[in-house]
Amino acid sequence: MVYNETGLEGFNMSFEMLSDLGIKKYEMCRDDIGRFFARSVVAGLYLGLATILSTTLGTLLFKDNLIASKIAVAGSFGIGLVIIVILGSELFTGNCFTTMIPVYGKKLKFRQIIPMWIVCYFGNFVGIALVCYLFFISGSNHELLSEYVVSCANTKLSFDIIELLVKAVLCNFIVCVGAYVGMKMQDDTAKTIIMMIVVMAFVLPGFEHSIANMGSFTLTIGALGSGANFGLIAIHMIVVTFGNMIGGGVLLGLPLYLMIKPNK
């Protein structure tokens, strides 16, 4: 019996694609950590570009039309994921999904991928924090920008921990769906449109992305200096990071693995 792409053969191809990708990422970090770290920094740089665009749009619109400001931010931020998927680099939140597939398939152990996640997370931080810091000290829309980012930070830091965790879980579930679409689709135009829309689905409701928040809080600290609440920011980042891990690795990764795993 011959199966088409939507049949069991297609499922097995999806499993092998994701499993091989996860293993290659692990092996790159293990064998050439400098290169892997550089790829992680570059992903942060790309997401920093998206932060500059979305933050500038939000800054220019939030006083006159708050709803338009939120839609503009949500509609533009997806360019970061598009660039990362098309040009290639290492995003922590995406790796929480892809590297769990070989773990579920018993080709890797969970403890093996933890160091890779840590390297990727730190590399993303270096990249996005650098771009956002340079953006802040450039003086672009300085006073209005400071007002906007502080307002956004106040909203983010007024949180209930359970609600924050759920927002982070949902966020990376959506982000990883977008990344998976990017892996499966061949046409770059269609890929770009769908990924932009998928990312809009996490930004518009105010869900929480740990790497994007690194950029947001870098701008906040630039605006507030020593007046920033570093303790609350740290708690926020810990909860969101943990939630993102669950969203990509468990909420999407586990049921998808059960769907596409090869028959024994």
What features would you describe in this structure?
The protein has one domain (15-260): Glycerol uptake facilitator protein. The protein is 81% helix and 0% strand. It has twelve helices and no strands. It starts with 7 loop residues before the first helix and ends with a helix. Mean pLDDT is 92; it is low at 1-6. Its main location: membrane.
CATH fold title:
Glycerol uptake facilitator protein
Distance separating the two termini = 17 Å
Give the CATH H-level superfamily.
Answer: Glycerol uptake facilitator protein
Computed CA radius of gyration, to the nearest angstrom: 19 Å
CATH A-level architecture: Up-down Bundle
Task: Give the percentage of residues in beta strands.
Answer: under 5%
Order of helices and strands: HHHHHHHHHHHH
Q: Assign the structural class, choosing from mainly alpha, mainly beta, alpha/beta, alpha+beta, or little secondary structure.
A: mainly alpha
The number of helical segments is 12
Percent helix range: over 70%
Oligomer: single chain
Summed up, the domain count is: 1
Uncertain runs: 1-6
Q: What is the level 1 CATH name?
A: Mainly Alpha
Task: Calculate the mean pLDDT score and round it.
Answer: 92
Number of strands: 0
Largest sheet: none
Brief synopsis:
The protein is 81% helix and 0% strand. It has helices at residues 8-31, 33-61, 66-77, 79-87, 92-98, 100-104, 110-137, 142-156, 161-184, 188-203, 210-224, 230-260.
Topology:
Blueprint lengths: L7 H24 L1 H29 L4 H12 L1 H9 L4 H7 L1 H5 L5 H28 L4 H15 L4 H24 L3 H16 L6 H15 L5 H31 L4
Subcellular location: Membrane
Family: Belongs to the FNT transporter (TC 1.A.16) family.
Membrane topology: Multi-pass membrane protein
